[in-house]
């Protein structure tokens, strides 16, 4: 399937070169529009954000694990508010510092023990495990056992893989559901499996919440009870439907939360570390910046310390630019006919923004294939200010999307990336394995991953 996505992108880019910045393909009952131009993306997503804020309805009748498809209509705003105002709000994200530190320490221990015999380490599985452990803690409010994390990972992967296999087939569902019946059935089975894994965790949290927050105990447990995503979902009232969410809907939303954050963040982390292994002078420069802030300390770098590291931020931004975890945004639905730069984008059309292409556009980025964090330190790109990754004033790249439907996990993702990259470089020197060059070839899965995952020597730094 990844070949189809890569092929689709290649064909679209050749169309763009011949036909101009907006391409409309008339598949199924409505048109599919592809936009690769920065300023048009800005006009659409930021200036006409409300019109571009819909999601196309799911064709498969399975309530795919997207807020958009499970709750098509206005409900997404309430759910989104729930995400951004509650669990992903900066103050809440900060309240999970202890969880981040716990996950980091487990990862450092693991890398240390694996590096003991000088064998090279395959890091991606560890990154995935770490990100999922962190998000699962935020989701269910508890540190889960190793085997529970593995079960969640397997169940999420099954859904993702069948979803990736069936997503392009959404274009003509009436036929594809018959022709590709086996794939549809696989998707349904994968979703049942996910329910079997997540529902016990949701019920366990519900029970705990009821017990701990029951009358009289509320005050006593207020300090030790840290709000989880499931808590906010259990409390949520859908005003239009005048009811709480049911278990299946909560499973969909938890799965979106876990999927949305796990793959994207660990993929980005792997790409960044791969570039630091490939370009040791960048790693060294980053280490020296960290050393300047940390001095002779042997401690873990704290979240507040990250604010003093501008080169670290540049490395993370360059990683997201050069290797955007997604090549396309999630599809947007247009709520009414809209004219963009003389082109009509029709109501109900599905609009896709070619995020990967924008970040590699030579009109905007000098020598775009090179990994050069310094470009984010130059005053040209920042206009003297911190680079605005939300694209609110101007879009130069949009790895998290832009406008009203921008990724609600942006703040959490940036913090996690900075925190993990900084600490991984602070505690270890990352070295190339003799005879194995770091291969930056891409492979399209749910995110764009390394075709040959990173293998590195991870050597503890002696202090
Ligand atoms: C490097 C990490 C990440 C990247 C590159 C990324 C990227 C994106 C992109 C491109 C979108 C689609 C925006 C659009 O439609 O225009 C999105 C949506 C979303 N992301 Fe992220 N994301 C990341 C991390 C996270 C994290 C940590 C979470 C939460 C725990 C998260 C949760 C979501 C959700 C729930 C949506 C759907 C929002 C909606 O439909 O309104 N993401 N993300």
UniProtKB/TrEMBL annotation:
Membrane-crossing residue ranges in chain numbering: none
PROSITE patterns: CYTOCHROME_P450
SUPFAM superfamilies the record matches: Cytochrome P450
CDD domains: CYP77_89
Residues engaged in binding heme: 407
Keywords: Heme, Iron, Membrane, Metal-binding, Monooxygenase, Oxidoreductase, Transmembrane, Transmembrane helix
Compartment annotation: Membrane
Location, primary (coarse class): membrane
Membrane topology: Single-pass membrane protein
One Gene Ontology cellular component annotation held by this UniProt entry: membrane
Cofactor(s), names only, from the UniProt record: heme
An example molecular function term from Gene Ontology annotations: iron ion binding
Family statement drawn from the similarity comment of this UniProt entry: Belongs to the cytochrome P450 family.
The name this protein goes by in its record: Cytochrome P450
Protein's organism: Acer yangbiense
Taxonomic lineage of the native organism: Eukaryota, Viridiplantae, Streptophyta, Embryophyta, Tracheophyta
């Amino acid at each position: 399937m990844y070949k189809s996505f890569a092929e689709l992108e290649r064909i679209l880019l050749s169309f763009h070169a011949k036909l101009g910045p907006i391409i409309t393909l008339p598949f199924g009952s409505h048109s599919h529009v592809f936009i690769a131009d920065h300023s048009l993306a800005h006009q659409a997503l930021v200036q006409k954000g409300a019109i571009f804020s819909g999601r196309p309805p799911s064709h498969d009748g399975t309530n795919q694990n997207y807020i958009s498809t499970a709750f098509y209509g206005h409900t997404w705003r309430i759910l989104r508010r729930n995400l951004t105002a509650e669990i992903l709000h900066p103050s809440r994200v900060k309240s999970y510092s202890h969880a981040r530190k716990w996950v980091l320490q487990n990862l450092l221990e693991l890398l240390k023990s694996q590096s003991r015999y000088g064998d090279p380490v395959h890091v991606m599985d560890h990154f995935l495990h770490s990100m999922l452990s962190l998000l699962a803690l935020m989701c269910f409010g508890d540190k889960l056992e190793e085997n529970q994390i593995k079960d969640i990972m397997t169940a999420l992967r099954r859904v993702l893989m069948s979803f990736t296999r069936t997503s392009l087939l959404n274009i003509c569902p009436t036929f594809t559901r018959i022709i590709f019946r086996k794939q549809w059935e696989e998707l349904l089975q994968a979703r049942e499996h996910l329910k079997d894994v997540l529902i016990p965790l949701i019920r366990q949290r519900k029970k705990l919440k009821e017990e701990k927050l029951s009358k009289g105990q509320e005050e006593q447990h207020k300090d030790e009870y840290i709000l989880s995503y499931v808590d906010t979902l259990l409390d949520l009232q859908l005003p239009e439907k005048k009811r709480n969410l049911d278990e299946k809907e909560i499973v969909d939303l938890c799965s979106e939360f876990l999927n949305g954050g796990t793959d994207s963040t660990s993929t980005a982390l792997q790409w960044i570390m791969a570039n630091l292994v490939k370009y040791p002078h960048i790693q060294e420069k980053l280490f020296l910046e960290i050393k300047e802030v940390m001095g002779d300390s042997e401690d873990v770098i704290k979240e507040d310390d990250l604010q003093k590291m501008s080169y670290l931020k540049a490395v993370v931004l360059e990683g997201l630019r050069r290797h955007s975890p997604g090549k396309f945004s999630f599809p947007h639905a247009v709520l009414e006919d809209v004219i963009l730069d003389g082109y009509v984008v029709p109501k109900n059309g599905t609009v896709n923004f070619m995020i990967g292409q924008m970040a590699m556009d030579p009109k905007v980025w000098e020598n775009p294939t090179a990994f050069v964090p310094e470009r984010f330190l130059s005053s040209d790109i920042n206009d003297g200010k911190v680079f605005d990754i939300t694209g609110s004033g101007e879009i130069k790249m949009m790895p998290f999307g832009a406008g009203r439907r921008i990724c609600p996990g942006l703040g959490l993702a940036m913090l996690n990336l900075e925190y993990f990259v900084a600490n991984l470089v602070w505690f270890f020197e990352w070295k190339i394995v003799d005879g194995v060059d770091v291969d930056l070839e891409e492979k399209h899965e749910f995110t764009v991953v390394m075709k040959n995952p990173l293998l590195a020597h991870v050597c503890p730094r002696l202090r």
